[in-house]
Amino acid sequence: MSISPCELIVRRLLAEVHNGHRPERLRAHYAPDHLEYDPRVAPGSGVAGLEAFWAELLDAVPDLRVEPGVALADGDRMMMFLRWRGTFRPGTPGERDFELHTSEIFEVADGQIAEHWAVVDYSVLRPLGFLPRQRTDLRRPDLVGVHTAAERANAEAVLGSYREVLTEHRLDRAEVYYERDYVHHNMQMPAVPNGVEAFKAYFAGNFAAYPDLTATVDHLVADRDRVMVFATWRGRFTGESRGRKPTGRALTLRTSDLFRLVDGRVAEHWEVVDYSGLEDVGVPVRQPVPR
């Protein structure tokens, strides 16, 4: 299978900067006026902000290596899961294994990255002293460019599940959108058990804890049998669930999800979650175990 021009640009960036530790190559890959929405980078700082981010990160994790995971190329947009690993502050009293999961969207124009978004798990970064530098509510929830009828139908199915099942809380509609034995993948935490019945039980607990829970799709890309989204979940922790007492705090949780569909229903699901949103409402989060 051939690699799209957009994917080739992103993979060169990973080879030269992420794993080659050559931040001086950022200006070769990013347009001078690119728009940066990664929470790790100061808003409006352009390529200089990226350079500052990389200098700080490589100082803290000098043996950093970044592994690409599931990915989806859609025209001039590329969405990819990344796994960042290394040793934080080696040789110091604060030394520890480092593992971070992100999901990132790169939009390419004229051979360079013109826009960049990311879902970043700050439950890993905050204990190490890294705080978000920006939050953006900029949304592009529609497909862009040319797509087949099947790709558009798959995208509509995913949007329907977010609307009916996850926002309207109609768990009776789950079988419309999910295969009964669908498979769930999460490399950060133990995944929700496979199958639609486990899915319904899990979200019944979520809806009990957050009776007003909504899930808003912020970004949407599709290619062949796969659809990938960024989403923002909002609600207030006012109900008891799984033995946890409500705190009344407002939840804002950002996720990225990739779905593989068969005959219009989800057969497989991968996710990256910024678990700091749960910490903010008083739900303890277990740190990822380096592998």
From TrEMBL:
GO terms for biological process: polyketide metabolic process. InterPro entries: Cyclase_SnoaL-like, NTF2-like_dom_sf. It comes from the Bacteria. This is Putative SnoaL-like aldol condensation-catalyzing enzyme. It comes from Actinoplanes octamycinicus.
